[in-house]
Amino acid sequence: MNYTPIFGWYYKSLNDRTPSWTGVEYLYQFLIKNEQEGPFAEEVPLKKLQLGDVIQLGRETNDFYHSCIVVGFRAGFPLVAAHTYNAFNKPLFSYSFERARFLHISGVRKSEP
After folding, report:
1. Are 68 and 54 in contact (CB under 8 A)?
2. Would you give the distance in Å from CA 8 to the centre of its chain?
3. Hey, which bits of the chain come out as E strands?
4. Is the dihedral of CA 97, 100, 72, 83 positive or negative?
5. What is the pLDDT of residues 57-110, one digit of tens each?
6. What pTM, to 2 d.p., does this model score?
7. pLDDT of residue 113
8. Distance (Å, whole) CA 79 – CA 90
């Protein structure tokens, strides 16, 4: 866990968590900028996605509103899981969106013992 207020990565309860657990932009900022404990990511092209990576859907205005996790592939295209409508193995392109960004989870940093 990364207990940095607001921009960290922890979930103790519904009332004690960082915004990165529910806010699309907060999750993006955490994953891309995290240099402390916890997961970190980089933006990649669609073809470089792997299982467990994050896809964020957005509007043409650069407003991203939904995150989903890659759980599989069919014919080279991602299948995703998301909690908004309890989706699992849903084809990415069955969603309606104008933009997408693809975040490859590059690793996880652990705290020093």
Report:
1. yes
2. 14
3. 11-13, 16-17, 38-44, 54-58, 64-74, 77-82, 87-91, 99-109
4. negative
5. 999 999 999 999 999 999 999 999 998 788 999 999 999 999 999 999 999 998
6. 0.91
7. 65
8. 5
